[in-house]
Each structure stands twice: as C-alpha cells, then as structure tokens.
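User: Can you write out an input/output pair for a complex, sequences first and structure second?

Assistant: Here is one pair. Inputs:
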Amino acid sequence: MDSMEVNKAIAAVLVAGIVFFVAGTVGTNLVQEHPLKTAAIKIDVPEAKAPAGQPGPAELPPIANLLAKADVGAGEAYAKKACTSCHTFTEGGKAGVGPNLYNVVGGPHAHMEGFAYSAALKSKTGPWTFDELNEWLHKPSAYAPGTKMSFAGINNDQERANVIDYLHTLSPKPEPLPAPVATPAAAPAAANAAPEPAKEPSIDTMLASADAASGEADTRKLGCVACHTFNEGGKAGIGPNLYGVVGAPHGHMAGYNYTAALKGKPGPWTYDELNEWLTKPAAYAPGTRMTFVGIKSPKERADVIAYLRTLAANPEPLPAK
Ligand code: HEC
Ligand code: HEC
C-alpha cells in the first residue's frame, strides 16, 4: 500500500467514524456497511500521518446500485456540458486539454497513447473499474492528488453514475455493468431471492452430462470473450488467458497482474472451486477485478467448465461418479 493510499484509507476511516457517530445520533444506520471492512486493515497506522484538517473522501454509495438505474442519455448530456471543453469521446478522437475518453472504462489508467498524463494518474495501477471511476469523478484531486484534471468533481451520486454509464457505452464491447449489491435494508429480500445452493445438483453430477461445445458458445454469449482468450499461448486482455486453467494454480497465467484476492487462494482450480467462482466471482474472491456477475444457470456453468477442461494438452479427468 503506498502512502497516498494509506492517507486515503485513514481519511476514509476518520470520515467513516464521524459519519457512523452522526448516523447513530440521528438514529439511522444507513452507512454501516463499509466502515468495518476498511477499519479492519488500518488500525495500526499512526494517526499522525492523517492529512491535517482536510476532510477525506466521503463514503460513496455503491456504484453498482446507481448504475442499475442510470440514464445514459442524461449522462451524455451532462458530459457534453461539463467535459467536452477538455475531452473528446469519439473513437480516435483527438486529445484536447484532456485525453480522448473512448474505451476508457476497463482500460488502464492513463489509457490514451501519447497523452502527457500526470504522474499522479499514471502511477495508478490496474484498470479503470466502475468503482474507481466513481471515486475519480466524485473528486479527481482526492483520488489522484496532483492530477492535471482541474475539474471539481460531480457531487450528485446519480449524475455521476449517469456519466459513468455513458462512458461505458463508448466501446466496441462495453464492459458488463456490475451486479447491484444488497444494502442492509434490501438484504433480506435479496437473500430470499438468491437461489439455494443446496438445491443445485453437485458440479460432479452436472459435469457428467455437460456439453463442452455449448460451453464454448456460452463463453461468447456470456461475454467471457470480451476479457479472456482461450487458445494456447493467447494474450491477456482485461483478464488472463484461460488455456490450461483447470487443475492449475489460482492466478495461473505467468506475468498477468492478478489481484491478491485471487492470487492468494491456495491450491489448484478444482471443478468445485471453478463452480463457486463462476457462480459469483465477487463472493468467491472479494476484491477480485473480474467484474462479471456470475453464471446463474448451473447447466451453463457446468458446460463452461467442461469447455475450460478441454483447453489442455491432457485434460484433467472428469470427477468420478
Ligand atoms: C479542465 C479540463 C477538464 C475537464 C473539464 C474534465 N477533464 Fe477529465 N481530464 C483532464 C485532464 C488534463 C486529464 C488527465 C489527468 C492527469 O493526467 O492527471 C483528464 C483525465 C480524465 C480521465 C482519465 C483518462 C485516462 O485515460 O485515464 C477520465 C475518465 C476523465 N478525465 C473524465 C472526465 C469527465 C467524465 C469529465 C466531465 C464530467 C471531465 N473529465 C472533465 C481534463 C479535464
Ligand atoms: C469484464 C471482464 C471479464 C469477464 C466478462 C470475465 N472475466 Fe474472468 N477474469 C477477469 C479478470 C480481470 C480476472 C483476474 C481476476 C483477479 O485477478 O482478481 C479473471 C479471472 C478468471 C479466471 C481465473 C484465471 C486464473 O488464472 O486463475 C477464470 C477461470 C475466469 N476468469 C473465467 C471466466 C469465465 C468463464 C467468464 C465468462 C463466464 C469470465 N471469466 C468473464 C475478467 C473477466
């Protein structure tokens, strides 16, 4: 964790604390979901390093829920008003004061070749996720202190989500939108709606009748191909190449920059683990960068896993019945 992130984290914890206190006072606990997660990691950090007298980034509501009801048209109109003095949005559009923004969602930070980005932005690792764009557009100077983008930020949560929704359409293959997350109030309903994993046949049973050819077609239908290649020696895209992944260690592609969430998983990718992962990546490896909701249908999941299994010189044996 670099010191900028530590500062951000401390600020987040401080703000979370204040918000939590205020929330308690007025008798609502709307904001309880995030603080715990953040606080658990930061407790040891000396308080002296916190930015003095400067309010940290506010706890933003989950972007996924805002994106679910975002309005692309309103986002485009907002961008035309607030961003076009510095940015173009068309494919191959020229840089102005700021870089062209075609295909920025899911692309790396500082994604436009030849644009003279600040070190502040250039040094950010990983792709522009929906969450990071949310933080960035809320307050660029807080997300990347020292950035050249002299734009105050979009305070209104829904307007920000509208703009991000619009940015996400500027691509030949738009990133899938993140799945909405349950808020405390909505949790019981979501829990009821979630399919009972116990009712599902085991992956071993499913694999016995799975169809690898349908699985291959499913990887196109479900959009895996937007982020992954499957051929031997295929290049990484947004996600790693998947040749030989079954039976290989988690984070199996040499040189690919995996999250600790995924890379930290011990042991090989068994059928069971792939089944869990593809049911809901964010639940299997919280913090993963694979922004894919998951495959709902057990049959499709088994077909996809059966297809992944064939991507090897010597495919792993199917589970014994
Ligand atoms: C005053 C000019 C200006 C305005 C207005 C502005 N930007 Fe920027 N933007 C920049 C500059 C300059 C950069 C490069 C920042 C850096 O290198 O630190 C940038 C960078 C970005 C990036 C990162 C691009 C990349 O390749 O990583 C995104 C996304 C972005 N702006 C979105 C927006 C949106 C959306 C708006 C309107 C709501 C907006 N900007 C308004 C100047 C501006
Ligand atoms: C939006 C892009 C995206 C989509 C869509 C996507 N993935 Fe991924 N996938 C990723 C990323 C990024 C990672 C690395 C995750 C990490 O490091 O946390 C990954 C990792 C994986 C891994 C683990 C690879 C390893 O080496 O450990 C498997 C398996 C996988 N994806 C399968 C799939 C399948 C099957 C689909 C379609 C049903 C799919 N993915 C859809 C981006 C995507």
